[in-house]
């Protein structure tokens, strides 16, 4: 049962990163590349039409996590208190940026909200990557100091950074050089993803330029991936243990590789967008698989890591929820299908009746 | 510990109050928009369609605000109330996750289509998407009230050795006797808000002699919905809720009504009076004897328990705030019925559109349903104190053990600043939409 919910939640959150990921990426490209008003407007619209229904996947994922793994939810949300609240604020700035730019026709008004959208998208991508980095690195569960826990074993509190910005086992901070690397990977990946989305959905005049941008960013991504694997070794002495023990898990890194290959070798915009989606899927699932069944490793020897087994709720609670989640997910898929059908094609060509 | 919980509560109260300013309009207005759209399909009068589109614009701004202030609410359960989340996640996680799965997906997927898709889909499908948005927003209200109902009156649970509350009967969450009255009352109250807003914009157009044709339509529709919902809010739904409070939270009821001492032979109903917590009595009281006993039990001389009967640790901590909130809600509710009845009467006699004094009143009345809704929630939430889950989990035992008060204060200040900005932008945009007015079809 735990595994079922773990997979469902992983799927919901991955879908969130694929869908809202292109909004973040669109924001990053918008920030650096869009120069003419016409492009700015249509690129913002390529995110603006969808951010709301995409964000629901996060809300749903959060709700499901709360339901199935309440101890994990409580521990992580209070432990990462400050970064989470910052994420909330950034999400607000991202949303109002998108919603407000079209409301008045003054260049200054538009440029304020464009910045709000672009900068918060960039920071959100960075923060989500850092979050993933924290999860695989682990935290000082229980706030252990000299072998004594300051809190209950499954609670912790992380400062934003420690004195050396390093992933120390005794006093990790949220931001250190390791998590920042993962954060930068997330930014690059989502920028590629967003660029693909813009090419897919709009006729903007920077589409040609984006082609080279995607190519270059893909090279950067390959370099960063290799680099991160090397540093990964420094942090975890036995980083690939899980993959050695359970060879089937290798499929997840393979998905990642397939995505990267697709970025270089596929031709159509659709396939390229598919490829960057695969990179996201592969990246998240590989990270999760590398620590499974842990969901938050403990960096001290006093308290146990959080796993899907020691943070889950009762059997009854999890099994009644199975009944409604099946209906819910099917409905959600139907809505998404209808929505995508009706809004298929390029944004600029659509007639909204305005 | 004391200041930790103080800032946690302040932050929750502030952010939820701000959030709830928006959903109450969303839920009520979606109903009225569907009504306009339906009238358009039925009568083929373009004015109705323009009205639907005009309110859709306001709806869209309002909806966005609801979404961006709602997400912090969900996160806050984990960030500020971690112990509570850990102990009750098994139960209220169900309803919250169902809200995300069943209502937010529905609402947000079809809202974009409703706003942009009129040409793409044709009129019948457009009405359908509007209806689905309405359904989504009411379903969301239903699940969130199911969550709150469990906190007010926990059912279908057992307590494990480690202190966790776990579900034993899933269906009990939805047959909770607290849920249906609260849901109906709350939804009617949101219709009150939206109809007063619609009527107020109508009155504004008539008084400023702009868009008068639309002004009349808005006024008429607002008064129609306003009268019916104001009546339903008071009776049967408000009354029904009061009976639930007497039954399940008697200490809260005594505090709401300002009854310090149990009186023999029937309780009076207090219309005006200020609780004096030192002498344990009401100052400057105006009261009508025996009515409260009758309203609560349909018996003129039945006893209603006063606060003296309860241990201090069982009584809500902030009794004056609870008492005033309750009296403001009920007082405003009575005024709403009065104003709407008068307006409906004048409408029927065809005198309303030229009767400026009442138009002015209607124009300035729209903030008051917001106040009634917020104070209504204060009654529910302050009355639940000192418990987070009534009778089971004290509020003090629900906070995050590792988050210091400095951090909470910092984020609280951040929210205050950010929401101030959001509030100003919201007013600017809605003001702009109202100023631009509804547009007749141009092609
Ligand atoms: C326009 C808003 C509005 C108006 C005019 C009223 N209410 Fe109300 N009331 C609400 C808006 C509201 C609310 C905000 O929607 C609440 C909070 C919780 C809930 O379910 O509904 C509520 C709760 C609520 C409760 C439950 C308190 C608790 O849970 O402890 C009672 C007993 C009443 N109401 C009673 C009344 C009565 C007798 C009214 C007579 C006129 C009345 N309300 C008017
Ligand atoms: C229906 C869903 C709601 C849920 C699940 C909910 C839950 C909570 C929780 C967990 C707290 C903090 C713990 C506590 O102080 O007891 C709280 C407090 C509070 N809530 Fe709600 N709430 C809901 C709706 C509302 C609404 C709509 C309002 C107001 C508009 C509101 C007003 C307050 C206030 C004022 C407090 C602080 C009370 C105090 O600390 O004394 N709540 N609520
Ligand atoms: C503690 C209490 C609450 C929490 C945790 C909460 C959570 C949320 C969240 C996460 C959203 C955004 C959903 C999206 O992305 O579409 C939202 C919006 C919404 N909430 Fe709340 N909410 C609370 C209180 C309430 C109450 C009391 C109501 C009304 C009964 C309500 C009704 C709605 C509605 C209708 C929306 C849709 C957006 C809108 O209408 O503006 N919420 N809420």
UniProtKB/TrEMBL annotation, chain A:
Q: Write out the annotated subcellular location.
A: Cell membrane
Per the UniProt record, one Pfam family is: Cyt_bd_oxida_II
- Does the keyword field hold Cell membrane? yes
Q: Give the transmembrane ranges.
A: 6-34, 55-74, 80-97, 117-136, 174-192, 213-235, 247-266, 278-296, 316-338
Q: Which UniProt keywords apply?
A: Cell membrane, Electron transport, Heme, Iron, Membrane, Metal-binding, Transmembrane, Transmembrane helix, Transport
- Check the UniProt entry and state the signal peptide residues, or none: none
> InterPro entries given for it?
Cyt-d_oxidase_su2 (IPR003317)
Membrane-protein topology = Multi-pass membrane protein
Q: Tell me its family.
A: Belongs to the cytochrome ubiquinol oxidase subunit 2 family.
Q: What is this protein called?
A: Cytochrome d ubiquinol oxidase subunit II
Q: Which organism is it from?
A: Reichenbachiella agarivorans
From TrEMBL, chain B:
Bilayer-crossing regions = 12-34, 54-71, 91-115, 127-145, 188-208, 217-235, 324-348, 355-380, 409-430
What InterPro entries would the database entry show? Answer: Cyt-d_ubiquinol_oxidase_su_1
Q: Does the keyword Transit peptide apply?
A: no
- The source's domain of life comes to Bacteria
- Membrane topology qualifier: Multi-pass membrane protein
Q: Where in the cell is it found?
A: Cell membrane
Please give the PANTHER family that the UniProt record associates with this protein.
Answer: CYTOCHROME BD MENAQUINOL OXIDASE SUBUNIT I-RELATED (PTHR30365:SF14), CYTOCHROME D UBIQUINOL OXIDASE (PTHR30365)
Record's protein name: Cytochrome ubiquinol oxidase subunit I
Q: Which organism is it from?
A: Reichenbachiella agarivorans
Taxonomic lineage is: Bacteria, Pseudomonadati, Bacteroidota, Cytophagia, Cytophagales
């Amino acid at each position: 049962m735990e595994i079922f919910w773990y997979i469902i939640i992983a799927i919901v959150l991955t879908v969130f990163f694929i869908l809202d990921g292109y909004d973040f990426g669109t924001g990053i490209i918008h920030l650096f590349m869009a120069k003419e008003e016409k492009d700015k407007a249509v690129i913002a619209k390529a995110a603006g039409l969808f951010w709301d229904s995409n964000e629901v996947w996060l809300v749903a994922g959060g709700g499901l996590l709360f339901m199935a793994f309440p101890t994990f939810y409580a521990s992580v949300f209070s432990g990462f208190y400050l970064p989470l609240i910052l994420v909330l604020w950034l999400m607000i700035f991202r949303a109002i940026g998108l919603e407000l730019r079209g409301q008045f026709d003054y260049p200054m008004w538009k440029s304020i909200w464009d910045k709000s959208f672009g900068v918060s998208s960039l920071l959100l991508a960075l923060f989500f990557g850092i979050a993933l980095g924290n999860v695989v690195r682990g935290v000082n569960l229980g706030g252990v100091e000299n072998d004594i826990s300051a809190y209950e074993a499954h609670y912790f509190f992380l400062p934003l950074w420690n004195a050396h910005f390093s992933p120390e086992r005794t006093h990790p901070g949220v931001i250190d050089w390791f998590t920042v690397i993962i954060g930068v990977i997330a930014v690059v990946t989502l920028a590629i993803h967003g660029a693909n989305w813009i090419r897919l959905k709009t006729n903007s005049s920077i589409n040609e330029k984006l082609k080279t941008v995607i190519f270059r960013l893909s090279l950067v991504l390959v370099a960063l991936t290799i680099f991160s694997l090397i540093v990964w070794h420094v942090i975890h002495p036995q980083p690939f243990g899980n993959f050695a023990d359970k060879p089937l898990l290798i499929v997840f890194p393979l998905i990642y590789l397939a995505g990267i290959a697709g970025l270089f070798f596929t031709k159509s915009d659709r396939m390229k967008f598919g490829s960057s989606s695969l990179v996201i899927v592969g990246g998240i699932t590989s990270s999760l698989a590398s620590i499974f069944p842990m969901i938050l490793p403990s960096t001290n020897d006093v308290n146990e890591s959080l796993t899907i087994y020691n943070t889950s709720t009762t059997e009854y609670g999890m099994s009644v929820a199975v009944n409604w989640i099946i209906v819910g997910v099917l409905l959600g898929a139907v809505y998404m299908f209808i929505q995508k059908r009706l809004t298929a094609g390029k944004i600029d060509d659509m007639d909204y009746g305005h | 510990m004391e200041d930790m919980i103080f800032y946690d509560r302040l932050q929750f109260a502030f952010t939820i109050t701000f959030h709830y300013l928006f959903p109450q309009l969303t839920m009520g207005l979606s109903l009225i928009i569907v009504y306009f759209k339906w009238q358009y399909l039925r009568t083929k009068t373009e004015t109705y369609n323009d009205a639907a589109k005009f309110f859709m614009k306001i709806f869209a701004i309002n909806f966005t605000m609801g979404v961006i202030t709602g997400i912090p609410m969900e996160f806050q359960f984990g960030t500020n109330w971690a112990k509570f989340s850990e102990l009750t996640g098994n139960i209220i996680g169900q309803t919250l996750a169902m809200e995300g799965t069943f209502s937010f997906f529905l609402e947000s997927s079809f809202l974009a289509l409703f706003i942009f898709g009129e040409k793409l889909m044709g009129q019948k499908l457009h009405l359908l998407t509007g209806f689905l948005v309405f359904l989504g927003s009411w379903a969301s209200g239903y699940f969130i009230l199911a969550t709150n109902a469990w906190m007010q009156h926990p059912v279908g649970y057992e307590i494990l050795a480690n202190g966790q509350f776990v579900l034993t009967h899933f269906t009990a969450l939805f047959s909770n006797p607290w849920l249906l009255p609260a849901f109906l009352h709350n939804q009617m109250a949101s219709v009150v808000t939206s109809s007063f807003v619609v009527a107020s914009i109508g009155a504004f157009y008539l008084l400023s002699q702009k868009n008068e044709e639309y002004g009349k339509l808005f006024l008429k529709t607002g008064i129609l919905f306003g009268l019916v919902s104001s009546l339903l809010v008071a009776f049967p739904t408000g009354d029904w809720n009061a009976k639930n409070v007497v039954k399940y939270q008697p200490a809260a009821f005594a505090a709401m009504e300002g009854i310090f001492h149990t009186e023999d032979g029937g309780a009076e109903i207090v219309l005006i009076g200020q609780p004096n917590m030192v002498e344990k009595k009401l100052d400057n009281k105006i009261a009508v004897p025996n009515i409260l006993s009758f309203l609560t039990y349909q018996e003129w001389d039945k006893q209603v328990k006063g606060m003296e009967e309860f241990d201090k640790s069982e009584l809500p901590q902030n009794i004056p705030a609870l008492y005033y909130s309750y009296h403001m809600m009920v007082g405003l509710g009575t005024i709403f019925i009065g104003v709407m009845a008068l307006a409906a009467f004048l409408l029927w006699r065809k005198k309303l559109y030229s009767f400026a004094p009442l138009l002015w009143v209607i124009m300035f009345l729209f903030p008051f349903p917001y106040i009634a809704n917020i104070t209504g929630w204060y009654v529910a939430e302050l009355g639940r104190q000192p418990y987070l889950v009534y009778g089971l989990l004290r509020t003090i035992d629900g906070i995050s053990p590792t988050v210091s008060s400095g951090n909470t204060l910092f984020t609280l200040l951040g929210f205050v600043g950010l929401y101030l900005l959001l509030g100003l932008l919201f007013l600017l945009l809605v003001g702009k939409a109202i100023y631009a007015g509804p547009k007749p079809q141009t092609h």
